[in-house]
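TODO from last week: model DNA polymerase III subunit delta.
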Amino acid sequence: MRKAPSEKGTARKTDAPSPREHPEPRQSRQVSGHDRALQIFREAIERDRLHHAWLICGPAGIGKASLAFRLARILLGAEDHASPAGRRVSAGTHGDLLEISRKPDPRKGRLRSEITVADVQPLQKFLHHTATEGGWRVVIVDGVEFLNRFAANALLKVLEEPPPRAVLLLTTATPGALLPTIRSRCRILNLNRLSPELMEALLPDLPPDVLRRAHGSPGRALFLAQDRNGEIAALARQALQGQPLTVENWQKISQIARQADGAELFCDYLSVHLAQQAKEEIRHGALARGARLAQKTAELEKLEQAALGASLDRAQMLREAYGLASD
């Protein structure tokens, strides 16, 4: 059984990289651990069997968007970052590349909870124009699971009638949440988690306990590293141990709710532990207990979505998450 987040362990280094210091996917020069996916894509080009839509699947933070931009660079002749085409991709100004993703919400200081049909509207215009540089047109939809119903239907129309010399690269951490009609029209590229050795090589400044809890996801490791003094992990551990919500913890929750990504970090600690514990219980035959823990994980995800959708205050969401985990 996976232990709850601990206050102990290797001390965090103060110079640990921040997610905001990490290069944007369009600027990433290194796509580590996904050589097989790159090989499959290159072979499809060489054999003139390039599918019009590719669905890149894998856990959050393992480099799906970075891989998508690498594949786009291959098609656009922009693998050399110093070349004119390479610089345009890095700057987000390449005329034959369109990126669709969740947009920032300036009022809340974080990404919106969904990709709307307005976000997808540029797709039709983009694909009905000829390529500005005479080659391929590439569309990247990063986080296709966040498309709302209307946006998903708009994308589906393009997938059903793909224009020539156009490739769509879709990324998702939850392929099961997509419309079956979207999945069926894509070629699937499944990405694996990175090995512990590769994680250590990529992120040598992060403590071993952070790398271990990241489970092969560099993005998640950088995310977890934001909890530098371990306060969020300590509070999550108290919830998982069933400790009551004291006045002191109530105040800590209010502080965490005001931190950038604080609420997401707290819920991440809880959901990972509950999901792992559910798997262990089921594996050992405790089906009823495992089902209850899995239900808690699902309820926790609903709380997070409610907070993202502004129907639930972040501090209130954290208090409910604490109570859910400690019950």
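Done. The chain has a mean pLDDT of 86.
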